[in-house]
Amino acid sequence: MNSPRRPLLASMPVFPIALGLMAGIVVGSVWPNYLIYGAALMAALCILGILFKCSRLVLAGASVAVGMLTVEVHTPLELNVTGEAGVYTGVTVRVKRYDFSQRITLRLVCDPEVSGGMIWLRLNAGVPAIEMGDTLRFASVLEPLGKVRHYPGEFVPGIYASREGVTAMATLMTDDSASCPHGLEVTKPKSAGMSGWMSRQRERFMDAIYGSGIDSSSAAFLTAVLTGESSYLDDELRAVFATAGTAHILALSGMHVAVIAFMASLLMFPLRLMGKRRMAMASTIAILWFYALLTGLSPSVFRAVVMATVVFGGMIMRRDSSPMNSLCLAAVVILLFRPNELFSAGFQLSFVAVAAIVMFAFELRPGWKMALPVRVAWEWVAVCVSAVAGTAAISAWHFHLIPVYFILANIPAALILPVLMIGEMSLILANAIGLSPEWLVMFIDTGYSWLAGITGFIASLSGASLKSVVFPWWMIATYYGGLLALWLALRWRSRFWGISGGILLAFTVVAYFQTPPPYPRSEAYVVEYPYATVIVAREEGRCVLLSDAPPSQYDKINDLMSSRLKDFTEIRGVPLEPVNTVLRGKDIYAVGKVWCFRDKVVVPVGLRRDLSPVPVHPCYALISGRYYGSMAEVKETLDPDTIVLAPSLSQQQMQRYKAELDTLGLPFRVGLPVRLL
Fold first, then answer.
1. Buried b (16+ CB within 10 A) or exposed e, 183-218
2. What is the pLDDT of residue 238?
């Protein structure tokens, strides 16, 4: 017999607001030119909601209109990029530092036509170290981001650029005689403001971690889990944690905020002993917000701090709070100021994981008595299963990987990570007062080695993860439709919804195996490499590299491309074969000095010392740095449709060949098209 139904959204008044806001952001991003019509429609829905006394319809309709307006307000200013060099002035908004370069987000303030526009400035130098609030004046050429074509698997800055409102980029190079780019003027602000002060405190905190005496690998890990700065982590470590299903601990999340809240509660314990319970909770809230500002207000940290604030605030005012309501409130606040976060993997994974835990973990609590250790283990497994089930589709969509042994990996991670975080914070405090506890340093290094060792062992097990998971977008809808039906079945104890959810999930699995992959049977792309032209060509189960580089560079190209094209090959599920391996396929035929990509024929001139005719008519004759003949000879011998000057040619060769081609009136271009097939 079914139990009485409980209300679904009675305790979540912010839920329709959050749902409507997200819908408005999606509509405003997909159809930006129909803002007025969308707002009029939402106004009509609000009127209908008022007439029929449906408050949720009014809230949802108004929120959709607000979401569309939010997208319109935060749409970045499109810069008129002419491709000519100019002098620009901008104020630093964000800085991302690498080993030998810096990526700076600037808000331009020079010309009225571009004032307010956002760009990325890449400094190929580590000095001067740019800080937030610095004013930079430089001469460079702006390049539009939207018109740059990329090969699959390459870092595509589009989604990150849209989140920061960036529409163009510029690069400043160094020469051999200078340690920083020429023509760059840096002006420090009189007052850096709160953001600049927090940025400096964050860097001091990171310096304190590295200066605490622990091993460099432990320091890189703890820097990531305490400050959110993960650029120091090794790529292999990231891959191991992702395979084991513990990649979430490398990015700040609710687990890390919970540890900070626990430490803050310990610090405020004397206030509790004095009977100042409300003051202790208010102080904990203040510490959590300081930590959120220190770490850059990432969506996951902001979400956790907002939820903690609501919980502690409710305790201070002696009011109950709803976890789902707090989650929706955090989403609304973030999206009002950063609507593009809705399309980021971090935002989606963070909020969906918590929503799944709130929806399923509480419903999976056992209704019978059991021993305390068994109950704790049961609830922890329920939390892990709920989080992974909730994020599986989104994680697979973005990262094409689903961990299998995630429970085995998350149990030791949940036990060791808080100990490491508390231990490192204690070590920093000890160093600050002049103490140097070697035993604590050894304890932290040993704990990290255990965590890395256990995670590596689980990741090395056979079938530790499902890789190369690629599917169309509509399967996400069927998957989450099935999860929603299962939640209704648990909440209402309904067989109908349970069977419906099982059917939807089973359909999703069957459809995944029956649906052909969403990438072509054959493809070929030009990969960026400064010293030669490199092409990655794949046909069904074979993937080879083609290059006009000399044989002495083959090993270097193989090693570099194996790393750079890792996502490309893993998604397609094919190994990458060495440079200039013979490939005789239906669409791709690459043998010796003739590369055929269906109807496009490329002949690398310089791959062989002799310039001789080929049995097919070439579309492109690729002139590499190893060719020292004339363009007239190329035209006479090969008669290509277009002569392609390789970007790797020296400046002298490039100028000489361009002058010769202009004299002969021959069609030419610099570099092959990014996509050849």
1. ebeeeeeeebeeebebbeebeebbebbeebbbeebb
2. 85
